[in-house]
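User: I'm preparing a small set of examples for a lab meeting where we compare how different chains pack in three dimensions. I only have the primary sequence for this one, and I'd like the structure in token form so I can line it up with the others. Please keep the answer compact; I'll paste it straight into my notes.
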Amino acid sequence: MADVVKVVFVDRAGVRKEFAGQAGVSLMQLAKTNGIDMEGACEGCMACSTCHVIVDKEWFAKLPKPAEAEVDMLDLTYGVGPTSRLGCQVILTKSVDGLTVRLPQSTRNMMD
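Assistant: Understood. Below is the structure token output for the 112-residue chain.
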């Protein structure tokens, strides 16, 4: 059986919701599967920034560094901070079991 990874999403109202997903699934896929208000307009091909999340500081260093293309895409959205990531680029692994992310107050759909 594949590893199960727990993730805590903090929605725009500050409500914490915990879900479990299979290792290898993106954070965006887990969010969409569980009804989290994350658009993911480009379906994970890194052509928009609607899956922008803010990773809790304690977890940010445990994630692989973002690719330059991800950083460039984040530069085009709202509310970006030092621990911002695109949910489509964060892949669940056992090393981030318990990961906590917050949804930004607004997003910008670069595909419109």
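A couple of notes for your slides: The two ends are 40 Å apart (CA to CA). The chain has a mean pLDDT of 90.

User: Perfect, thanks.
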